[in-house]
Amino acid sequence: MSSYIGRHAQLYDIFYGEKNYQKEADFVHTMIQTYAQPNQRKNLLELACGTGNHAFCLAKYGYEITALDYSSDMISRTKEKMSDSQANIHFQVADMRQLSALDFGQTFDLAICLFDSIGYVLHNEAINSVFDGVYRQLNPYGLFIFEFWHAPAMLKSFDPVRVKRWKLDDREILRISETSLDISNSTSTVLYTIYEFFANQTFSLLQESQRNRFFQLQEMISFVKQHDFEVVKYFGGYDNLLTQIDEQTWHILMILKKN
User: Fold this and answer.
1) CA 129, 130, 131, 134 torsion: positive or negative?
2) Can you tell me the mean pLDDT for 70-94?
3) CATH T-level assignment (fold) for domain 153-212
4) Cα gap 29→41, rounded to integer Å
5) In this predicted model, what pLDDT tens digit does every residue of 124-155 receive, in sequence order?
6) Could you give the residue range(s) of every CATH 2.20.25.110 domain in the chain?
7) pLDDT by residue (tens digit) across 100-110?
8) Residues in CB range of 193: below 8 A, 6 or more apart
């Protein structure tokens, strides 16, 4: 994995400024209140936390959060955004593939991995390492809530090229995303080319390539069952009413319980 390094991490919140993190956090909180044991709704482990936006939203509900990301640049950005009132969040540089080897001095009631971030783990062995690590870090009957890219939607509707612009007070940003699929390995590779145009007629350029995996629903369930998790519920994204999963479903949110 090698994504959101350097300047790309600094621009992350601009690129995803329209994402409704609060709505997603509210949904996750509702699922915790619905499916977690009453005495297991406190300490939460977040994998691939990015710049902390979900953690900041969930912290308002009083969770004690340990939030991890393997990108030190993303963690640096989270710490720049923190306020004194967010003392119940601890951010740490760590790789989700190595969870089993990490000692947090506690185990957790809850774990989450949102924004399709489990897709950064490309290979079966590493995916199994993530599930094994989460299982080890959870208390008995603890919940793991995670989101993944749904293969049928990706195969049917992916966009080979996307162009987006952001006009800011001091500059304009242009991002070109070029996507190719490796169907045999269920992965997509996205080449990001990012220009920043400044008022003094200068510009900067960066490029970063990211590779992500997408999954069939039954394939993911197969991974889960190898680790003695119970599938509690799954949804087409963050919609409590949407239970039908089809080729129009881009994201699946799955709730697991440790047996």
Assistant:
1) positive
2) 91
3) N-terminal domain of TfIIb (2.20.25)
4) 9
5) 999 999 999 999 999 999 999 999 999 999 99
6) 153-212
7) 999 999 999 99
8) 175, 176, 178, 205, 206, 207
